[in-house]
Write a structure and sequence with these properties.
The two termini are 27 Å apart. This protein is an alpha/beta fold. The chain is globular. Helix content is 36%, strand content 18%. It has eight helices and seven strands; from the N terminus they run H-H-E-H-E-H-E-H-E-H-E-H-H-E-E. Strands 3-2-1-4-5-7-6 form a seven-stranded mixed beta sheet, with helices on both faces. The chain has two domains: 51-131, Vaccinia Virus protein VP39 (Rossmann fold, 3-Layer(aba) Sandwich); 152-237, no CATH class. Belongs to the methyltransferase superfamily.
């Protein structure tokens, strides 16, 4: 496992982060605002006949939304629910673990989903006698994968997640968010080296949707209205 820390002085500009690991993320994108556009009808229809629901939250930050989603989905299912929250930033995972109100059901790990060694995911699934997750949350993560790993990296990421889960939930950032991230990094005298080589640009959120449907054989089953941050929640059956 590779733990990658954000070494920029976030006191100067908390928005100039390489991996999207904002220390104050929930101050400007509250879990409640995001959850308000989630559907209520998808959480009691599963491929698995198991008595539990397994959820993977990729880029869980400090776990605020992870815990809120646990309470949300608990309202719509009688099955036991277990969530694995992962993030690239060990300090955020430490904070999530310290504030975990559901220790029997929610586990946090510092893990880079793009690393070749993913034994922790396999071990978690094996512990629950499962091969896949029922739900995978990928909320405002695609841009950071894209900026750090390029077009091919994002394709690989989307294929990996769609192969790991029954329902994939995405919240792709539009292109203007890329421009803002690059501008902040430039101001901090840093850069995303792969940015200039990206081919997926204008309409990147629609391109992600098309890739999931055509290349990953995933079917879009829900598209939300926009949040106040001009983003939508998409749900796919994989």
């Amino acid at each position: 496992m590779q733990e990658q820390q954000e070494v920029t002085t976030q006191k100067e500009d908390p928005g100039a982060v390489l991996f999207g690991n904002f220390i104050n993320y929930y101050q400007f994108n509250t879990p409640e605002e995001r959850l308000s556009v989630f559907p209520s009808h998808l959480w009691n229809n599963w491929k698995s006949q198991d008595e539990k629901i397994l959820i993977l939250d990729v880029g869980c930050n400090a776990g605020d939304f992870t815990q809120l989603f646990y309470k949300f989905i608990s309202k719509y299912s009688t099955r036991d629910i277990y969530i694995l929250g992962i993030d690239i930033d060990s300090s955020l995972i430490e904070r999530a673990s310290e504030n975990n109100a559901f220790e029997k059901n929610i586990t946090y790990l510092c893990l880079d989903i793009m690393e070749g060694n993913k034994e922790e995911l396999s071990d978690y699934l094996a512990f629950h006698n499962r091969e896949n997750f029922d739900v995978t949350l990928c909320l405002s993560i695609t841009m950071w994968i894209h900026l750090n790993h390029g077009d091919n990296g994002l394709r690989s990421f989307l294929k990996q997640l769609s192969s790991l889960t029954d329902i994939l939930v995405t919240e792709p950032q539009p292109w203007k968010c890329y421009q803002t991230a690059v501008r902040r990094m430039t101001k901090a005298k840093r850069k995303f080296p792969l940015f200039k080589d990206l081919q997926w640009r204008t309409g990147v959120d629609a391109t992600i949707n098309d890739f999931l449907e055509m290349e990953c054989q995933s079917k879009k089953v829900f598209e939300s209205t926009e949040t106040k941050w001009k983003r939508k929640i998409y749900c796919y059956r994989c």
